[in-house]
Amino acid sequence: MMEWLTEIHQGQGHLIKPLIVGTLVSLVCSIVGCFIILRRLSFLSDAIAHAMLAGVVGGYLLMKLAFGVEAHVGAMLLGALLAGVITVALVSFVTGASRIKQDTAIGIMYTGIFAIGAFAISMKALGKHIHIDIYHFIVGSVITVGNPELWIAGIVAAIVIPLVIMFYRELQLTSFDPVMAASIGMPVLAVDYMLTGMTSLVVVSGVRIAGVILVVALIITPAASAYLLFDKLSRMIVASAAIGVGCFWGGFWLARVAGASPGPAIVITGTGFFMLTLVFAPHYGLLADWRRRLHAVPQEIKEDVLGSVLRSDEEWVPLTQVMRNVSSPRPLVRSAIGSLIRQDLLDQENGKVKLTMQGRREARRLLRAHRIWETYLDHMGTPARELHGQAHKLEHLNDERTIDYLDDKLGHPLTDPHGSEIPEDFVDFEELEEVRASLLRKGNRAEVIRIEEAARGSGLHAGMTVSTEPRSSDGQTWTLVTDDGRQVQLAHHQADAVFVKLIQVDQKP
Amino acid sequence: MAGSVPAIQVDNLTVSYGPVPALLDISLSIPAGQLVGVIGPNGSGKSTLIKAILGFVKPDVGTVQLFGEDVSRAKGRVAYVPQRGSVDWDFPVTVREVALMGRYGNKRWWQDMSRNDYALADRALEQVRMSEFSKRQIGQLSGGQQQRVFMARALAQDADILLLDEPFAGVDAATERSILDVLTRARQSGKTMVVVHHDLETAAEYFDALILLKQRLYAYGTPEQVLNAELLSEVYEGKLRVFAALAGEPIDQVLEDARSSVLSKNKNGDVS
Ligand SMILES: Nc1ncnc2c1ncn2[C@@H]1O[C@H](COP(=O)(O)OP(=O)(O)O)[C@@H](O)[C@H]1O
Ligand SMILES: [Mg+2]
Question: What is the rounded end-to-end Cα distance, in angstroms, of chain A?
Answer without folding.
Answer: 82
